[in-house]
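Example S7 (structure tokens).
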């Protein structure tokens, strides 16, 4: 059993010690844990949620959204055609963490974890000889991390890197730890329903409101929010990482999943309005069959806020990278920068909750920074989120995971990439986890072609319930021309492969 710390355990632990939540538990315990093993290199995975590669200047976007990433890319392996395995957090992150495609881990719906047989098939299990630590701003990812907790040395509680939900005790009861501990537990165990004390509860609410008010000038359209009243500052989370990462016992595997640029897009005043009237024009695209019709101006406004929110995470990632580099840690650490899925502001779709798989929804950044790297390598072959796990095992000299659907990424693989390789994404967000999937979208990218197959959408598509799209993503990266009619032979070959795959995991309906 690992020393995973659930929120409740953390609170219990806090109650037994002198409670000072501004000092994370790691700061005190790192020295007492295992000694560094210099021969093994560390791995730091940083995920920014809902970050579409389509919106990254490094990949040709018209707005300079990522000056820091562009600067740092000069020492990285940059993947230009990297695909998430799903278009929202649940399948996307589960595939990143397990190296398996969605129809295997079967995390399809918002409330799904991975199936029981994948609980011991995560990246944390694969790195069993490492100090493994993880944090997520996104509660859907916290669910996975809780599932994988036995393979984590330290699971940082969700509340720890929030703006609210932390720090009340020191503020009110700094001279009396006993009262502080009891109060904290009674106020904070929110998931039991009513708080113990109405008095403290209202104090807590007021405290949080005051805390948020203090940041309203910095964030003109809202302090960054996860859900409801869970607010966060990426600056604080990055500060915490900067301080703590150098104290992690080595070798370590760190997985840190942060919310920006996920909706709601709330850029700080440094960036709010940055692209206003920048004159950049975006071509109208065909309306998606599944999407509501939204005003074009609304889409443009949301796109602008999203792009300005990207500037915020780019600044903070740059700050983290520079600090870790100056500490010397990056001489012995692989840094992985990626996302769980993309985002869309076209065709009537705003966000990523849609049956569709257009490129901005599934193309995500992947940059791998080798230890002490000084040169840039560009990879254009299609790659998948499921490749990250086997690649990290390979580059750190460990045995492969026999369950993965991924391959070792170029340029690290011994052989050249297979040009006929199939890259899949899949979603079925209304389906029962263990039942036959009645409604699903599958994507298959093979070389320059991308096939998307919709099945079971009777309300939108009529009695057949099916739709096929085929794009040449090399010559038509904006996916303006559906080739499913004009290139029927290619569509048929790819469809047969995709259907065979679906049938394999889903006898007999799809
Ligand atoms: Zn997400």
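Recovered sequence:
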């Amino acid at each position: 059993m690992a020393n995973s710390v659930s929120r409740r355990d953390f609170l219990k632990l806090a109650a037994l010690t002198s409670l000072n939540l501004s000092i994370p538990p790691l700061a005190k315990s790192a020295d007492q844990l295992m000694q560094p093993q210099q021969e093994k290199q560390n791995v730091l995975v940083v995920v920014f949620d809902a970050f579409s590669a389509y919106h990254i200047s490094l990949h040709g976007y018209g707005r300079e959204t990522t000056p820091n990433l562009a600067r740092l890319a000069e020492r990285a392996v940059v993947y230009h055609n990297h695909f998430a395995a799903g278009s929202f957090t649940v399948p996307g992150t589960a595939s990143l963490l397990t190296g398996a495609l969605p129809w295997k881990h079967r995390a399809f719906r918002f409330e799904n974890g991975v199936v029981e047989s994948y609980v011991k098939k995560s990246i944390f299990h694969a790195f069993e000889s490492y100090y493994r630590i993880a944090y997520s701003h996104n509660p859907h990812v916290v669910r996975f991390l809780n599932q994988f907790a036995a393979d984590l040395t330290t699971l940082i509680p969700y509340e720890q890197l929030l703006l609210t939900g932390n720090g009340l005790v020191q503020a009110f009861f700094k001279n009396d730890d006993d009262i502080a501990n009891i109060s904290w537990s009674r106020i904070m165990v929110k998931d039991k329903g009513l708080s113990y004390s109405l008095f403290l509860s209202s104090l807590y609410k007021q405290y949080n409101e005051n805390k948020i008010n203090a940041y309203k000038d910095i964030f003109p359209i809202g302090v960054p929010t996860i859900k409801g009243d869970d607010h966060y500052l990426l600056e604080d989370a990055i500060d915490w990482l900067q301080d703590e990462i150098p104290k992690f016992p080595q070798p370590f595997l760190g997985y840190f999943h942060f919310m920006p640029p996920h909706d709601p897009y709330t850029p700080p005043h440094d960036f709010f309005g940055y692209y206003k009237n920048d004159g950049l024009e975006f071509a109208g695209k065909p309306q998606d069959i599944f999407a509501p019709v939204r005003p074009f101006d609304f889409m443009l406004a949301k796109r602008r806020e999203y792009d300005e929110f990207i500037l915020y995470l780019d600044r903070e990632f740059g700050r983290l990278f520079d600090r870790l580099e100056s500490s010397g840690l990056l001489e012995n650490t692989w840094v992985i920068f990626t996302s769980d899925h993309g985002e869309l502001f076209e065709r009537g779709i705003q966000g990523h909750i849609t049956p569709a798989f257009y490129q901005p929804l599934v193309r995500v950044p992947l940059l791998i920074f080798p230890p002490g790297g000084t040169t840039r390598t560009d990879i254009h072959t299609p790659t998948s989120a499921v490749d990250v796990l086997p690649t990290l095992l390979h580059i750190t000299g460990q045995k492969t995971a026999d369950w993965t659907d991924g391959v070792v990424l170029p340029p690290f693989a011994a052989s050249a990439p297979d040009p006929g390789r199939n890259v899949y994404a899949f979603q079925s967000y209304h389906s029962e986890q263990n039942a036959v999937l009645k409604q699903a979208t599958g994507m298959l990218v093979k070389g320059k072609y991308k096939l998307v197959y919709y099945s079971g959408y009777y309300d939108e598509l009529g009695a057949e319930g099916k739709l096929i799209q085929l794009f040449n993503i090399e010559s038509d990266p904006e996916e303006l021309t559906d080739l499913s009619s004009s290139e029927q032979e290619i569509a048929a070959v790819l469809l047969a492969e995709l259907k065979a795959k679906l049938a394999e995991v889903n006898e007999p309906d799809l």
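Notes on this example. The first strand starts at residue 42 and ends at 48.
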